[in-house]
Amino acid sequence: MPLIQPLGVKNERVKESHQTTIFRIIAAILHLGNLEIQGERDADACSVSSEDEHLANFCALLGLEHGQMQHWLCHRKLVTTAETYVKNMSVQQVLNARDALAKHIYAQLFNWIVQHINKALHTTVKQHSFIGVLDIYG
After folding, report:
1. CATH 1.20.120.720 correct for 16-112
2. Which residues form a coiled coil (predicted)?
3. pTM for the full model?
4. Were 61 and a residue from 4, 28, 37, 106 both cysteine, which residue would form a disulfide, CB within 3.0 to 4.6 Å?
C-alpha cells in the first residue's frame, strides 16, 4: 500500500512508482549535498573525485552520465557571438552552483507534488476543498 495519501481524498493515492521516483529524487538531492569538492592549486579551479560515492549515487539515482556530471559540476560554459569558452569555477562558485541545482530539483519535485494533489482534489461537485502546505527549507 502506498505510503503517501492526500488526506480527505477518497480512493486517490500516489502510485507506488511515483513514490519510488519521489524517494529517488530526494535521495539524489541529499547525495548532491554531500559531494566532496576539492580545491586545486589554482584558487580558481576545483574538482570532484571520480571515486566520490555521493557523485556516483547522485548520477545513478537520476540516470546521469557520471563523467559529464563530474566535469560540469566544476566548469561553466560561456557562449559569445564568436566563440564558446569552458571556464573553471572556484570552490565557492561550485558550492553555490551545487546548492542552486539542489534547490531547483527540489522545487520542481515540490511543484509536481502540488499539481498531483490539486488534480486529485479537482471535482465537478460544488464543494470547498482545501489543502495547506508549509514548506520550510534552508
Report:
1. yes
2. none
3. 0.78
4. 28
Alpha helices in the chain (DSSP H): 16-33, 53-62, 66-73, 91-121
Q: Are 38 and 46 in contact (CB under 8 A)?
A: yes
Q: So where are the chain's domains? A: 16-112
* Three cell numbers, residue 131: 489543502
d(CA 70, CA 62) in angstroms, rounded, equals 14
pLDDT, residue 9, reads 44
d(CA 2, CA 20): 10
Helices first, then strands: H and E counts in the chain:
4, 4
